[in-house]
Write a structure and sequence with these properties.
With 171 residues, the protein is an alpha+beta fold. The protein has helices at residues 2-29, 65-74, 80-90, 107-115, 140-153, and strands at residues 41-48, 51-58, 93-94, 103-104, 122-125, 128-131.
C-alpha cells in the first residue's frame, strides 16, 4: 500500500511540474515577466475589471539610471568599474531587501544589466525571447551599440604570451 501511494505522489509531482512549466511558458509568450522585476522596474499589482493582476511597472527612482548607464557605456570611454562609480555618485542603488539595505550596484550586476535584453522590453523563457508587455527602457539601436562596445572590450580570455621553460612539455 505504501509503494502505491509513493508512486501516486511521484506521478502527481511530475504532473504539477509540467502544469507549472506550461503556465510559465504561456505567461512568457503573452509578455509577462517571470519572477522578480529587474533593477529599473518594480513588481506591481493592478486591479483590472475586478481581477487582481500582477504586473511590472517602471521604478520612478531607478529607471532613469538605466538609459544613462547604456548611454555612458555606449560612448566607449568607461569601463564597468568607472561606470559603476559614476552611477553610484549619481544616486543609483539596489532596492533594499530583508537582508541588505541600500547599497551601490555591484560590478557583476551592472555587467549583467548591459547584456540583458529585458531592458528592450523582451522576456526570456527557456532560451527563447518573447516581446514583453512593459515599456522598454532602452532602444534597440542603443542596446546594439553597447553590445559592440562590450564585445570589443572582451578578449575572450585568450592569452598571447608564451613562456619558454626548460622542462616545458616533459612534466
Amino acid at each position: 500500500m505504501e509503494g502505491i501511494t509513493d508512486i501516486f505522489n511521484e506521478v502527481q509531482v511530475r504532473l504539477n511540474g509540467q502544469d507549472i512549466a506550461i503556465k510559465m511558458g504561456n505567461k512568457a509568450r503573452n509578455g509577462g515577466t517571470l519572477g522578480k522585476a529587474k533593477i529599473g522596474y518594480l513588481n506591481d499589482t493592478k486591479n483590472i475589471e475586478g481581477h487582481k493582476v500582477n504586473t511590472i511597472s517602471i521604478d520612478p527612482e531607478r529607471a532613469k539610471y538605466i538609459p544613462m548607464a547604456f548611454e555612458l557605456f555606449a560612448a566607449g570611454q568607461h569601463t564597468i568599474d568607472e561606470l559603476r562609480d559614476e552611477l553610484a555618485e549619481a544616486g543609483l542603488t539596489m532596492p533594499p531587501d530583508a537582508r541588505w539595505g541600500r547599497r551601490p550596484v555591484s560590478k557583476t550586476t551592472l555587467a549583467k544589466v548591459l547584456r540583458d535584453r529585458y531592458y528592450l522590453g523582451e522576456v526570456c523563457y527557456q532560451g527563447i525571447w518573447y516581446p514583453g508587455r512593459r515599456e522598454a527602457l532602452v532602444s534597440a539601436e542603443l542596446f546594439d551599440r553597447v553590445q559592440r562596445v562590450l564585445d570589443s572590450h572582451s578578449g575572450s580570455g585568450t592569452r598571447y604570451r608564451t613562456h619558454k621553460h626548460y622542462l616545458k612539455g616533459l612534466l
